[in-house]
Amino acid sequence: MSFLKNSGQKDKQKKTDKKIDAELPFFITIVTLLATSGFGPYSIFIKIKDMELLPNVRLEAMKILKKIDILGMDPLTVMTEVKDKGQSNFGEFLSGYVSAIQSGGDVVNYLKTKMNSAFEIYESAQKGLVEKVKALVDTYMTMQIVILAVYIIITATTTGGIGTPPLETDIDPLYLVIVMPPLVSGLFLFLAKSVNKSKIEEIDVKKVIMFGIPGIVAAVAIMFLKIIPDYSLYILGGALITSALWPALKFQNKYKFSLDAEAASAIILRDVAEARKAGLGPEKCVIRATKRKDFGLFNKVANGISNKLEWGMTLDDIFQFIKKETTDFQILINFRVLFEIISSGGGNVNTLDTLAGISEKIRNIEKSKREMLKPYVLVGFILIGITGFTTLLVIDSLTGLGTNLETDAAKKSALQLESNSRFELLGIAILVQSWLSGLFLGKITTGSYSAGFRYSITLVIISIGAIVIIQSKIFSVSSIFG
Question: How confident is the model at residue 414 (pLDDT cuts 50, 70, 90)?
């Protein structure tokens, strides 16, 4: 029992350390900037205690402060004890911080070195994320191609001849293609959940369902009742496109705002640092930097900051205003640290210049990651286009050849009806797979399922195009062989 208890505690500690490591670069940045402004360890932890943006580090800071305030322990001793509890990057950083203070060395230089090192690790982690995405996409592509190959092999080996119904003892391979691709897409949607994290909130699922379900239900009813039998696939495709239209537009606005805010925050912090070098006061620097009109969708927030500062509102109230407008962690942490430095009277040139440099570095890392992930969208489009077209072509060709070779009129008519039915079922599967694949692409490239609705629309349109080409006999193997 004791062994199990210790093992459970170790696992819990590992999970806690992992969460803290994700916040560590930003914690080290705050410590560095505050230390540059002349704050000591105890005062810094007082500031960290109010940082809700870093919940796990904040919890550790509160534990440290309790030992100092309640037990009367020395701050440096408490900080050293964190490492004694177990090996962690957080404890190692605090131990080095204490050692630099006690040795009388250059504490600020040590902190800046650790800060740069932390962001190098952060950058490596983002590159590692891209490699994970690559592996996931490669696996997804392989699975889709394998399913198509298996279908062709089973069709060739389990039927009594090309275009004839499967033997009574065999399972129609068509069901493999109908069921498996959407199931595989659903599985990879789940696997992608932990690969890339989004900075933007997902669109409310209930609202998406309320908007999309009625059209899809109506399309299914029309197909089931065979009201317009020749256009069933196009009706379903239209319903899937319509269901994704509102969430796609809604998320596109959020995403554009996030990109504008990311770029604007780095520019604002750089403008503040440069204006401070000219001798302006910190608040006036912020007012000047946020009055610009070239921040895109972030103009409203930026201009609101300058207006509120001019009206004499507190920095805490202004930060709450920013928090209501965006949930983007990078944007919030930038302004939180900036306001904390200014309100603490530490808005010196070196501190603001360091903050601007870190903000620009984070922006470059995120921008580089997005650029590296963009090609996978094209890969997804090509994959769905090729596999969808090829699968539809195979079913149409195999059944078409058998139908054309049949001489008996009654049997030929029956085969043609069966061929149309099988093509329709397969078309439904392709359309559903395309819709789900769009969500998968959105998740791996932006970290948000909601971003995938715009890709779903494009992929469904591509699939409808493939259906039109095959049904119109623009390209048909059976017509080639006459």
Answer: low
